[in-house]
Amino acid sequence: MRESISQNTINNIKSYSKEIKNSEIARALWVSVSSVYKYRKETKEDIKENLKQDNYTEDLNKKHATQNLTILKKKYGDVLEKLDEQEKMFEVFEEVKKKQWIVKIEKNPKWESTQSVANLVFSDLHVEEQVDPDMVHWLNEYNPQIAQERSKIMFTRFSELVSNLKQSENIHWVIIHLLGDFISWYIHPELIEWNAMSPTEAILLCKQIICSWIDHILETTDEPITVATAIWNHWRTTDKSRVSTWWKNSYEWLMYNVIAQHYENNPRVNFKIEKWNINYINVYDKVMADMHGDMVRYQWGVGWVTIPLNKATAQWQRAKHADLYNLGHFHQLRDWGLWVTNWSVIGYNNYAESIKADYEEPKQLMYLFNSKYGKTITSPIILKV
């Protein structure tokens, strides 16, 4: 049977502390142990009430807040790190602002004490040859009129470059390196029917172009001019090249001397014309060697012209030392250190395509040669507008 216990007895059971055993309470109140256990056991409502009394809500809020903060740190950890870095950077920036950083750039007096010569490498004009744009995929067009226009661009831009470089360089001398192939002549049979002019007409036009632009440099600069020349493989009176009598059969050697005679009374213009195809020019305490480049043979190998050039210059250096070689002929503009090779005025044509030459826009080369440091600034002169 279920034991009948009054509410007063139930209250007395609950009033005992938790340290007193159920059996002791049962003997004191004359009830069964099971009844004491029943009424001493806390209900959910009792637990909630006790928790309320123990600031349960406050602790729970703290727990939720801690959990939310952990979630936020995980979610926005990268943002918080970046903000922290930016704050530190801002602090450093503020510190730097407080200091006065003054950097004064002055010219190097040692550099000012040196001198430089401006060099224009002019070659491979091929003035009378034509390039039909329809035959080279519209990559290029050329004829005597365009040859004159590109020559004008070359000398104008060279003068502008020299003028600009004078702001920082002590330029006191100009050297024009005429390295050959100013006409195409009839070196290939098809040129007999394809050239726009005969060789003699082309020579007269070349003389006019070179003289007019030497005059232009004389008018636009105050420096003395040296014209150094090189004999090339195109214009000659013989079908095949000669070795010992090359200069005697060269139309270009004749043209150089005619131009030199034109300026023989001008003290600012000096010509350096040789009978052999290597022309050595003394520049400060160094030596330049001008040549057209057709003596160097190669078949478009992997190393390009560098391998035959290395072999050739090694042999030439045994006879006479040179610090820099200027070459045309190869229709590729490169600064190789010991050598500079010039591109062409005519530009890309059928012959270039047939030998698989690299495509380049028509251009020529200029560089500065310093009395102390040698070749310094090298720049192409683009001939297209």
Which characteristics define this entry?
single chain; 385 residues; alpha/beta; 6-stranded mixed sheet; 5-stranded mixed sheet; 13 helices; 11 strands
Care to describe what's here?
This protein has 385 residues and is of the alpha/beta class. It is 42% helix and 16% strand. The chain has 13 helices and eleven strands. The chain has helices at 7-15, 22-29, 33-40, 44-53, 56-75, 77-98, 109-112, 144-165, 191-194, 199-220, 251-262, 306-319, 350-354; strands at residues 116-122, 171-178, 225-229, 269-272, 279-283, 286-291, 324-327, 334-335, 339-341, 363-370, 374-382. The strands form two sheets. It has a six-stranded mixed beta sheet with strand order 4-3-2-1-10-11, with helices on one face. The chain has a five-stranded mixed beta sheet with strand order 5-6-7-9-8, with no helix packed on it. Helix 8 packs parallel to helix 10 and helix 10 runs parallel beside helix 11. 29% of the residues are buried. The model has no long low-confidence stretch (mean pLDDT 83).
